[in-house]
Structure formats: structure tokens, C-alpha cells
Amino acid sequence: xIALAVAMGIGRFVYTPILPGMMEELGLSPADAxxxxxxxxxxxxxxxxxxxxxxxxxxxxxxxxxxxxxSAVLAGLMGLTGSMAAFLTIRFLAGLxxxxxxxxxxxxxxxxxxxxxxxxxQALHFGGVGLGIAASSAMMAILVTEHAGWPAGWLxxxxxxxxxxxxxxxxxxxxxxxxxxxxxxxxxxKDRSLVKVIVAYGLFGFGYVVTATFLVAIxxxxxxxxxxxxxxxxxxxxxxxxxxxxxxKVAARIGxxxxxxxxxxxxxxxxxxxxxxxxxxxxxLGGFLLGGTVIAITAFGLQTARLLAPQAPRRTFAVTxxxxxxxxxxxxxVAGLLAQASGSFFLASxxxxxxxxxxxxxxxxxxxxxx
Length: 371
Known about the structure:
The chain is mostly helical.
């Protein structure tokens, strides 16, 4: 949980609450902001695909810890430069680091949970993403009251990440227990439902990332106070923390595919609310519904794909992650360019909501039909 808080909640998503200050003080345009976000997601794509192979077997702990160290160092470097080229390079490398932590720490955790028949604790592991988001929002609230500039956000993120690394290094166990399947996996089956899930997952990557990247910038554009910006991001993190545990109960009742579709619908409502509702309610509802759904949809997308191709888990992870990552690489660039052309994030957010609805509908249509 601490590892994901550092690498994902802070390493990937602290950019969102720091971004408005960077745009204001450095004169970054929405398009610039989108390119920086996409560089991070491109790094995540390459890192996830590299980590999905069998070359790292037995080295998971070392590579995961290296990823945590890199996350801390790279966050600090972001606060020491003002160059667009440096931002793109650093965030690309931070994406690589976060992917290594995500894949290798999850393999360690899942292996040991499976060995002890405690798979119910997976939700606690993924709750680390929400914990990191909440911690970073609390940090930003303190920095705002001290009138600190945007570099302080990155430097304090680095300090918190270093503390997280120390805790993980102290407590984490050895390499993952193996499932015994080290041979070459078969090709993915030519299955229409699997294709639908992969396409739906890519659309989800595009749809969620617009709000996940620009939510705090939307608040600032709407005239919200700096403390309110931090509050919106705090709500996002707190909603994310227990979300997978709650959604697992929903999926047990209505099925995995239906749960995925309902979560996409709710997230689309939140994305729309963030720009369509005035005052403080819209952004707060947007943050709550984003945090309350994004981790569950991410997990359900991977789970449905694995159910459809159980003999090739690594290939399935690689292909679904590639689809998801392509969506989240394209999303910030398109949204940034659209926001720059229109003068607000309204059209970009409405487009993202429509894409989320399409993702849910396609995934729902992929469910096995009852005889």
C-alpha cells in the first residue's frame, strides 16, 4: 500500500494539484500541460510492457525498490528546473519508475496473498493509490497556506517519497512466489469479447485521464481558492482508498462486466459535473466520483481480460495495458489542445464523458450471454 502511495498516488498523480501553479508561474499552456502528462503516461506504457515479460523473475524486489528510489529523485528534479524539455524527460522517466513499482510490487503481493489464501487483501494494496493522492493533497493544502511556489510541491513530494521508500525497504518481503508457469505463453485467442474488452479499456484510459490530469486546473479556472483546490484532490483520494473493496461487493452481486459499465457511467457523471455544475458542488462531485471509480475500473478491466484468456496472463496484461496507456497518452494532448482552442475544459470534459459511456457500453456487451 505504501509503495503504491509513493509510486502512483504521488509519483504519477501529484502532477494534478501542482499543475495550476506551474501553468500560472511558468506560463505553460493547456497544450504544454497535456504534453507533459502524456510523456509520463508514455513512460508508464513502456515500463509496464517491459515489466510484463519474464526477464525480471527473481529480481522483483530489487527492481521495485529501484523504482521507488527513482520516483523520489525524479520528483525532486521536477522542482529544480523550469525547462519544458526537462519536464518531458523527467516525467517520462517517472512513468517508467511507477510502472516498475506497480507491476513488481503487485507480483510480490499477489504471490504471497495467493499462497496464504488472502486475496481479499488486494483491495488494501490498491488503496495505496488513494492514500498517496490524499497525502499529496494534504501536503498541498499546507504549502498553499504558507504561500509556497510550485517547486515546493515537487521537493516535498520527493521528501515524502523518500520516507515511503524507507518504510517499504524495511518491511517488504522477498521475491514473489511463482505460479509455476514460466514457459512460453500461447497466443491470445481470437475472441470477439476479448477484443471488445481491450477496446473498452483503451477508451477508459482516454476518458478518465482528462479529469485526472486537469481537475485542479479546472477548479482554478473557475476561480476556486487554493485551499479548495487541495480539498477537491483530497476528496478524490479519500474516495479512492476504499473504492475497490466496495466495488468488489458490487461486482459479486451484478457481475464483473455490469460493475465495469456502472462504474464508467458514474465516472462520466462526475466528469460532466466537474465542468457543468457551478460553485463548489461540481468539482467536489467530480473528484468524489473519479476517485470512487477509477481504481475499480482499472482492476475490473484487467480481470475481465484475464478471464477471457486465462492461459496467457502476461500477454493479456501487456495488451490490455498497452490499450489503456495509448488512451491515456492521447487523452491529455487532445484535451489540452481543445482547451487551448476553446478557452476552457468544458468541451474536453464532455468528450471524455462520452468516451467513458462508450467504454462501459462496449465492456457490458462483451459479457458472456446466458444460454
